[in-house]
């Protein structure tokens, strides 16, 4: 007998912390461990309508739906010999050093996203979440930006293979979602939307407004390139000026999202100024859009985030709770048990509450437009580039 539909399918197994580039690398698996510990301490994962499912490794057939067979073989070989330096495939670099079991760990993350996507598509779950996923920089034939296999692209490909005809992907990581965009740049069935710091100031140097899709899929790629220093109010203004109108026009059947929380003001690798509260507001907005437009079908992944003690666990616990239909009030105290664990293991204090003390609200795009402001210039450039392709008025 089939299990009843759950609110949230959560992909998790402690083995996912095996995706580990080693000591000193920014992409520490500590952030995942602490997120799951905090979500458990707050009761999110113990809810009766939440299923925590240990993912199976994606097989080569799934991986090669996005990646070349040669690249998969190269990853497997590099994981067997971590001293490998394979620059052709982006392996053995500072960003993507090789480690033992690299193929297995990476394929496990892909399997988690694929199974979450399938569970949502076939109705076993309303929402699916893989906080270990969101490895959006990996390309068809090479690793990039801490990403070995592109679990998001493989998950979207699985949805297309299952019959989805309109998949919307929204990426709120501080870095451009270049690998996912590249995978579907010529596919009119997939709308990719990325809000990120300007490529003039941050890796990977792509994601300009004029990247709008191949001629066969014009308008299917959308990029909002935000100025350094953008805070909650500006970020949410840009989000609401672009994402809801496009999604409402495009009418996706399922929403896939990437929630890198490296836009936080404390993140060491980028230059935006969001708070956990601003990030939580974006999760709430995307959840609401999934219910408004896709009958709730929502697949959410993690992504970047390198303030591994103070930011990532709180941000992604909010994400998990929202997906579980049990949002946590921002002013909620963090359980003492979790704070004691941080102190005992990492020798420092931990955050007291699930908030940074901000209360951000989005301002309407039509109010306060200033053509001299870099943020408004950036948003208008995106609206001018893509809105007419969707039959929308860019305004101003």
TrEMBL record:
Domain Histone deacetylase residue range list: 25-321
BP terms from Gene Ontology: acetoin catabolic process; epigenetic regulation of gene expression
Species this protein is from: Haloactinopolyspora alba
Disordered as annotated region, ranges: 201-220
UniProt-recorded name of the protein: Acetoin utilization protein AcuC
MF terms in GO: histone deacetylase activity
Highest classification ranks of the organism: Bacteria, Bacillati, Actinomycetota, Actinomycetes, Jiangellales
Membership in a protein family: Belongs to the histone deacetylase family.
Coiled coil: none
Keywords recorded for this protein, A-Z: Acetoin catabolism
Record Pfam families: Hist_deacetyl
Pathway participation: Ketone degradation; acetoin degradation
Keyword flag Cell cycle: no
């Amino acid at each position: 007998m089939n299990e009843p539909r759950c609110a949230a399918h959560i992909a998790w197994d402690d083995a996912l912390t095996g995706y580990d580039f080693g000591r000193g690398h920014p992409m520490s698996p500590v952030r995942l461990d602490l997120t799951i510990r905090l979500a458990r301490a707050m009761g999110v994962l113990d809810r009766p309508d939440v299923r925590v499912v240990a993912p199976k490794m994606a097989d080569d057939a799934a991986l090669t739906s996005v990646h070349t067979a040669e690249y998969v073989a190269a990853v497997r070989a590099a994981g067997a010999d971590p001293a490998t330096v394979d620059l052709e495939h982006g392996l053995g670099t500072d960003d993507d050093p090789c480690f033992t079991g690299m193929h297995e760990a990476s394929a496990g993350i892909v399997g988690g996203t694929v199974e979450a996507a399938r569970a949502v598509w076939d109705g076993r779950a309303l929402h699916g979440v893989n906080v270990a996923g969101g490895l959006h920089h990996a390309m068809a034939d090479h690793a990039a930006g801490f990403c070995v296999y592109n679990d998001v692209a493989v998950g979207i490909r699985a949805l297309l293979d299952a019959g989805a005809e309109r998949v919307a992907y929204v990426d709120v990581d501080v870095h451009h979602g270049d690998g996912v965009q590249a995978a579907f740049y010529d596919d009119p069935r997939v709308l990719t939307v990325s809000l990120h710091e300007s490529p003039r100031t941050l890796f990977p140097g792509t994601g300009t407004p004029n990247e709008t899709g191949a001629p066969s899929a014009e308008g299917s790629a959308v990029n909002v390139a935000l100025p350094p220093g953008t805070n909650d109010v500006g970020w949410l203004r840009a989000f609401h000026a672009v994402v809801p109108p496009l999604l409402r026009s495009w009418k996706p059947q399922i929403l896939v999202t990437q929630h890198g929380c490296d836009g936080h003001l404390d993140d060491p690798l980028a230059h935006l100024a969001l708070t956990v509260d601003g990030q939580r507001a974006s999760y709430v907005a995307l959840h609401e859009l999934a219910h408004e437009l896709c009958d709730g079908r929502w697949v959410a992944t993690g992504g970047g985030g390198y303030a591994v003690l103070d930011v990532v666990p709180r941000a992604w616990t909010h994400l998990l709770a929202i997906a579980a239909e049990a949002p946590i009030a921002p002013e909620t105290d963090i359980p003492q048990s979790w704070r004691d664990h941080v102190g005992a293991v990492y020798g420092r204090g931990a955050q007291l509450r699930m908030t940074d003390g901000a209360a951000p609200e989005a301002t309407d795009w039509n109010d306060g437009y200033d053509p001299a402001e870099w943020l408004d210039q950036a948003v208008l450039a995106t609206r001018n580039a893509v809105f007419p392709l969707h039959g929308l008025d860019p305004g101003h």
